[in-house]
Every structure is written in C-alpha cells, then in structure tokens.
Amino acid sequence: MTSQREAELLESVPKGLLINGEWRDASDGGTFDVLDPATGKVLATLASATSEDAMAALDAADAVQAEWARTPARERSEILRRGFELIQERAEDFALLMTLEMGKPLNEAMGEVKYGNEFMRWFSEEAVRHNGRYNATPEGNMKMIVQHKPVGPCLLITPWNFPLAMATRKVAPAVAAGCTMVLKPAKLTPLTAQLFAQVMMEAGLPAGVLNVVAGQSASKISGPIMKDQRLRKVSFTGSTPVGRQLLKDAADNVLRTSMELGGNAPFIVFDDADIDDAVEGAMAAKMRNMGEACTAANRFLVQDSVAEEFTRKFAEKMAALKPGRGTEEGVNVGPIIEESAREDIHAIVTKAVEQGAKVATGGEKVEGDGYFYKPTVLTDVPHDAQILREEIFGPVAPVTTFSTEDEAIELANASEYGLASYIYSKDYNRLIRVADQIEFGLVGFNQGVISNAAAPFGGVKQSGLGREGGAEGIEEYSTVQYIGIADPYAKK
C-alpha cells in the first residue's frame, strides 16, 4: 500500500460538518485531529462541532421529517440499494480508511465493509415489507387499521471500533422507516462516517435527512439535542456507564432508546467438543478487531479434562500472530486504538497475574511506534479474579476451568453483562439446555463469529436495550398507530 494512495484517499474525505446537505466549517472554526493508532501521527483534521452546530443539524432533520416520512417506501428502498452498490464499488477505499483510522488489518477491514454493507441491502428490502394490518374487532363492532409510522428525528451515536458497520446498522433502518437523523461518530474514527455520508448523498438521500456532526466534545453535541423535544429517539453503541447516563437524560423527554452497551462474553468449551474447532472458534471470537469488540470472547470457561489441551493449542495460535500496521503484508493484529486503552489492558493483565493467573503467552506491550499489545493467553485464572468481571477490550484471553454443566452455566451468568456468548460441544441437547439457561442476547453454537444483518443484535442486563438488524431492526425506528373505524354495516 503506497503512501500516495493513502494521501489521495484521505484528501478525498470531507472534513466538514454535514448539515442540511452541505459540508461546512464549525461555527467557531474549531477543529480536531484524527490519529493513526499504528504510528501516533495525524491522519486528518476535521471540523469540531459546537452545540450551535448540533442544534443546526437537528433543525435540518426536523425541517424535512414530515416530507421524508411521506416519501414512498420504494423510493427509500432504492436510495439504500444505490448506497449499497456505491459502497461495494468503493469497498477498497472504505477498508483502507478504516485500517488507517482504527488500525485493524486490511483483510479484516474488508470483512467489515462486507458485513456493514449488508445492513444497507437488508433494510433496502425491509423498507417495502414493513406492513400494518386491517381487520375487524372480535366483537364485529369496528374495523381496525394498524399502521407503522416513523418515530421521528433520531440521534445516532456510534463507537470507534466498527466505523462503517455501526453507522450502517443505525442509518439504514432509520432511512427505511422514514426517520431523519443526526449522526455523531466517535471522535477517534470519524473519517469512515464522513465518507459514508458522502456516498449516501451520492445515492440520492435528500438534504437534511442525514446530518453528520463529529467533534472533540461528545457532550457539547449530544447534550443540547437530547434536551430538545423535537428529538424522538436516541440510539447509542458504546460503554455501559455512558449508556446509563444517556438513559437518564432520555427519561426527561420520554425518548425511544436503543442501547447496545458493554459485554463480557463467555466462551464455554465442554469435554466433548472438537478441540481444534473450538480453538479456531476462540481465535475468531477473541481476535476479531484485536479483541476490541463488545461481542469478543472475554472469559474462556473450559471443562477440566480438556483445559490443558485447549489452552496449549490456543496459546500456540495466539503466539504465532503478527502485530503491525494493518496495511503491511502478513500482519494479522493491528494496534490498540489509543495509548490510554493500551495502558488499561496492561493494568488488567498485571492485576490478573497478581491474583494468581499465569501468562502462557504475551502479557506485554510491543515496543516502538504505535499502541500495540502482544496477543495474550492467561491460564489458571481464579474464579474470583477481577479480569473475569470486566470487559477487557483487547487481545487478552483469560482461561479458567469448570467441572460440570451446572457450574459452567453459573460461571457464565456471573456477570452484570449479557450480550454475546459461545458454546462448543457435540451434544446438541446440551447446547440447547445451556442456551436456555444462560442470560445472553446472542449465542454461538460451535461458531465464533455470529453477527449478521439478518439477525437481531442486542443484549440483556447491563448490555442494553433493543435490537439492531433483522426484522426487529426497523421496529426500533417505528411507532404503531391504531385507527378504530365505526362498523360500516351499522347503518345499512
């Protein structure tokens, strides 16, 4: 990958705020820098939205909401389909841009383009099938119309770890349902959202339907919008503490909310599992996105009799991974997003070792430029170790053991989170029993990566509210209206 190619791509990405179909500077002229986590160097400088800019974006969204809601579903569908096709055409651009600003290896970034773009295709198809119903009441005294209406202007807040997929997973169903939006991408990785918004405009999305306001301060953007009664929904993907605060803020205006929050996924390996298959699944579940994913396997619960074999093979695979800049040949582990995050990861590992865990491989920072951390496997992790109770968000895999199926279920549920989980066993009766009893919104059966546009994504407990993707995804952006009609035969 040439530096010229990178420079040309970065130059082509809009640097302003998208408000009412126009790219503009911040009202106070403020800017912020986007860094390459593999080098620490500045990639681009973007306009930094003020509270005034945020309200201008909401003004634009509100001004066109009624007209956009009346737009035929087929027209909204076709815009999403054109967006899908344009992203396909520019897949290499999107992948490279994500690698530059987020750090993931280029082949992983291409995988995200494919995955993220499927939300565009899926909701282009759902837009024209979001039907209501017409029928008589059971008593026969009325006819009923039940129809779906767009909830109204939405605030969409996306995280830094999946810059394209998290944007398409929110924007596509909002477009399909007939909602207008203010999108606030993460300050660490806003470039992909900027390019995505540009593509949506090229696809024919009317001015004001999608507004994008990136900035240095999240609160300056979301704060005033959340207080405005014209806003009808907030969708947030990010940490549980921030999600809790947004829920409190949303209560004042009784806003619709979708919250995709933290995770602490158990990866359960039973003694009858295909161990080699389980190790491959563990690599996928742990190391996708360098472990910087809310669905990442966070706790490896392995039955006693196969723990040694699983851990040995897993550690060998992890040790063979090559950290480096995602654009370099042979690299399969990118950097951690920023230095403070790397420090947090190392502190978690250090604490685990102090509490009795042993390092099978890794456990250290990678010296040199960028924010790299060695892929790490910890063994003999005590059940009460702190590392098993918190989201690691990095390439660290703590392995602990269990004796019985009931104990595995108890350990899996010993978390405030309930997003993703993974179970490896050849016994499908056991798979069903365990899935029924563990408290998680997503379960992988002998499968390490389960995210799909057709699947309802979301968790329980402290992992959030609502679902994204699937048939359920468009429901999150719709309200239901019932119309009761007097019996047309009553006066015959």
Structural account:
- The protein has 492 residues and is an alpha/beta fold.
- The chain folds into 2 domains: 277 residues, 3-Layer(aba) Sandwich (Aldehyde Dehydrogenase, Chain A, domain 1), CATH 3.40.605; 181 residues, Aldehyde Dehydrogenase, Chain A, domain 2, CATH 3.40.309.
- The protein is 40% helix and 21% strand.
- α7 links the parallel β8 and β9.
- α2 crosses α8, α3 runs antiparallel to α5 and α10 crosses α11.
- Helix- and strand-based class? alpha/beta
Broad shape: globular
- The proportion of strand residues reads 15-25%
Distance between the termini: 77 Å
List the helices and strands and how they pair.
Blueprint: H1 3-12, E1 17-19, E2 22-24, E3 31-35, E4 42-47, H2 51-70, H3 73-89, H4 91-102, H5 106-126, E5 133-136, E6 142-150, E7 154-157, H6 165-177, E8 181-184, H7 191-202, E9 210-212, H8 218-227, E10 233-237, H9 240-252, E11 256-260, E12 265-269, H10 275-287, E13 297-303, H11 304-319, H12 339-354, E14 358-361, E15 376-379, E16 396-402, H13 405-412, E17 417-418, E18 420-424, H14 428-437, E19 442-445, E20 460-461, E21 464-465, H15 470-475, E22 478-486
